[in-house]
Amino acid sequence: MKKILTTLLIAHLSIACFSQVNFEPGYFINNDGLKIECLIKNLDWIHNPDYLSYKTTETSEVKSLTIREVREFSINEKSRYKRFYVQIDRSTNDITNLSDHGYPDFEKDTLLLKCLVAGKKSLYQYSESKGKLLRFFYSTSDDEVEQLIYKIYSTKPNELATNTNYRNQLRANVSCEIFANFPYKTLAYKSDPLSKYFLKYNSCKGSPTLDYNKSQNKYDLNINLRPGLNYANMTTKVYYPLAVEYPLESKICPRFGIELEYVLPFKNNKWAIILEPTFQRYNGEANTKEGLIKANYNSIELPLGLKYSIFLNDHAKIYISTQYSFDLPIDSYISFEYRGDVQLHSTRNFIAGIGFQWNDIIFELRNSFNRNSLNDYVYFSSKYSYFSMVFGYKLF
Questions:
Q1: Beta partners for 110?
Q2: Hey, what domains does the chain have and what are their CATH numbers?
């Protein structure tokens, strides 16, 4: 069992540390205006990049371009970044360090802006500092953009105010007859509502439009059936009058779970939050010189955690998962022939797994670390762990 656990953990760490990122079809435009078709390393950037890695063919060497060397690049028509020389306000939204005035503190910089909507008027986004800075820009021409102004500032100690001039900018410069009665006061400084606004504007103007924001914010909620088998081990320890540990028999036991998998809309959908309510049972016993010890253990497990996937192709992936599990025993106890019954109580432990999925078919190996369901007792304790083989099927 220890060898299995060690192998599982090594595989877990190795995959997490050395997983590869796909090179996907795309293009970049260099400073001479030359459009070069290539394969670009898709990091699905949460923050705006300042360089990109690419190769001209699958077997060629990887090269890099800095922000000074590339005017624009796009990956598989799913994301697009364009270089601009901009005036940007980097005022913080940290309430402990707010500015004391509402006008923007502009500074000049060269940035690769993320295109959210492309059309007659385009919408761009810039973010940095782990999401603490988020700014939107709109195109005033093919080569120039202007920041949409939004700033939180302090007027007095413990009093906040907000400059929402972006609403006036849109009303004056990105408007059409359909916006005659538009509720600008409710338009939030966020990617989704601003993207919808620009899509409506471009549609009103009859402009061809590309919605990159739609492709960048896809998420999935998958439901997977996950029956399987546990190879379970239990020991119990009695501390009075002497501390004696009793190993119960190892058993192969059924388990059945339903996994809810929420695929996060970034990092190329490689990360997911998972919750898997699972019913498991174990019945084991041990003959000791003091008498028979029997365990009847039925419970609902609620493991909550993260899953990281490595896509091998369009049909197959390898994944690893780590979960923190809450265990809820149902009419469960350990019976001592010479002492009576002790009830098993709720407890928690960690679970780690590694799996393979081909289309809708799932196979996973996982290990549940020791948990003590007698932790409320002074003179008793227990250790319960198992190694699982899970055979799953994706419903949708």
A1: 85
A2: 17-77 (2.30.30), 78-216 (no CATH), 218-394 (2.40.160.20)
